[in-house]
């Protein structure tokens, strides 16, 4: 049995000894800027060469690759940066018509990357009608992130880390929808996932110091 590679997807079913469903990983990566942005890339190859999409690719299951390892590889190779923490799976998309090369089931993950990544855009500027259903995937992932942040331990730790501040929480919640400092503080203080400490941290050269919150789970 031949290994499945991305080039296999361009081969008609009758011409390929292994044809069925492939697993892919699409990464919704948000930058660590004061106003987090979403990382998008310009596709280097066919199909849709030159078009803007999420960073994504096949899971190299034949090499024993995990979803997290796949996400790390995709972000490194296609976006030219590294994940700053873990990942969290927020969706699985199985629309058989999503990819014209064949049926690919997408495992959608959210993650964080450093600030000022090339190609990152405000989430309000996500292009319409990106290939492979990536517009809907990106918007749905961001909505799910807003629902799970400070509620689901895996999602919260992947996106905020072991230590965070109110400013960081508010910035991330602001990506997911309208929020205020008061609403973000209430949500953070009520979350069982973090405990406020007396340590203060300045979020930016011009910002006011804020209390550090430590992850408990």
Automatic annotation (TrEMBL):
Protein keywords: Hydrolase
GO MF, one example: hydrolase activity
Keyword Hydrolase appears in the UniProt entry: yes
Stored Gene3D superfamilies: Nucleoside Triphosphate Pyrophosphohydrolase (3.90.79.10)
CDD domains documented for this protein: NUDIX_NadM_like (cd18873)
Nudix hydrolase domain sequence ranges: 23-117
Domain of life: Bacteria
Family matches, as SUPFAM superfamilies: Nudix
Keyword hit for Hydrolase: yes
Family: Belongs to the Nudix hydrolase family.
Name of the protein described by the UniProt record: NUDIX hydrolase
Taxonomic source organism: Mycobacteroides saopaulense
